Amino acid sequence: MRGALRIRGREFPWGARTYVMGIVNVTPDSFSGDGVPDAAGAIERAAEQRAASSDLLDIGAESTRPGHVTVDPEAEIARLIPVIRGVRERFPDAVLSADTYKPDVFRAAHSAGADILNCVWGMPDALLDAAAGARVPVIIMHNKQRAHYDGPVMDEVLAFLKDAAERAVRAGIPRDHVILDPGIGFGKTPDHNIEVLRDLARLPQLGYPTLLGTSRKSTLGKLTGKTRPADRVDGTTATTALAVAAGIDIVRVHDVPQARDAVSVADAIVRDWRPATWT
Prior knowledge:
CATH class: Alpha Beta
Low-confidence stretches: none
Oligomer: single chain
Largest sheet: 8 strands, parallel
Number of domains: 1
Strand order of the largest sheet: 8-7-6-5-4-3-10-9
Shape: globular
């Protein structure tokens, strides 16, 4: 055990099993085709992800797909806040993550009821100041503008994440509330992504909780020949099982039921987990 995520009176012990984070995209241009730009629809999507037994919900209002159009903070807030507020009112005990890299958007999301900050651009100083001031857990993802590496990809990814995690701890965020994501599909070619997945077991060795997001991504499409993101569920499920075997703590997915099944079987084998109904 490596501590736990403690939010809203709930506790998620790290190492006990792999938790499932359900994605809610409040965007008109999500790469995965599941974006729900209207607040009412996005709240219903969150309800569906929760009903499918997700442990956490990650809500974002700006697409990060290749070639995406940047959304200004005011527009992102206008999309995101009604959804977070609506989900919080409907599900008071839900654990909600706000997916943003903008300090003003995070502050608004936290005020509306978000519990966790999830940033796809590491943890810039201004954003870290906002997170530390709010005393929230953070998800720090590796990313870079150009997919170029002078040596092994995972060496650079781990060095980047280690530095960002240590800065977060120095800022006052507890070590077991600093969650690290290697950033599959971000600043990496398909071959880079495969290299990271091959070396995935090195990530938990940094001593922090970990997250993996491979859901429906283009590398899986290239491997399987599936051009539509919605058809990449089986490929995602394969990486989910591999994530459990590597010791990853959270998988971030679009398709919660399939991920839940994969995690349940893999956790039973890897972590000797059993469901409450087991006899």
